[in-house]
Amino acid sequence: MCVALPGIVLERNEKTAVVDFHGNTITARTGFIDIAPGDRVLVHAGCILQKVSQTEAEELTKLFDELESATQKADDSNL
């Protein structure tokens, strides 16, 4: 299983794109995905896997935030 994080394309180059994840930017390979600045995309291991809607990106972000919170609570209770 892989985890792909949602981000927003800031800039598109020939074979790469600059993608923003809440203020953290990376350069990801675009492969065969047709993207443009402003698109929401899923990125895993430096590769854009697919475009997603804004709603899907928001739902995934909320899910990851909930998982992070639950993990933090579990870590705190084990101290």
Number of domains: 1
The H-and-E topology, N to C, reads as EEEEEH
Largest sheet: 5 strands, antiparallel
Strand content: 35-45%
The coarse silhouette is elongated
Structural class assignment: alpha+beta
Instruction: Tell me roughly what share of residues is in helical segments.
Output: 25-40%
Number of helices: 1
Which fold name corresponds to the CATH topology? SH3 type barrels
Rg, please? 14 Å
- Strand arrangement in the largest pleated sheet: 3-2-1-4-5
Which blocks of ≥5 consecutive residues have pLDDT under 50? none
- Terminal CA distance reads 29 Å
CATH architecture group name: Roll
CATH class: Mainly Beta
Number of strands: 5
Oligomer: single chain
Topology of this protein?
Blueprint: E1 5-12, E2 16-21, E3 24-29, E4 40-44, E5 47-52, H1 54-77
Antiparallel strand pairs: 1-2, 1-4, 2-3, 4-5
Structure description:
The protein has 79 residues and is α+β, with helices and mostly antiparallel strands. The protein has a single domain, classed as SH3 type barrels, CATH 2.30.30.140. It contains 1 helix and 5 strands. The chain has a 5-stranded antiparallel sheet, covered by helices on one side. A hairpin with a 2-residue loop joins strand 2 and strand 3 (24-29). The protein is elongated. The relative contact order is 0.19.
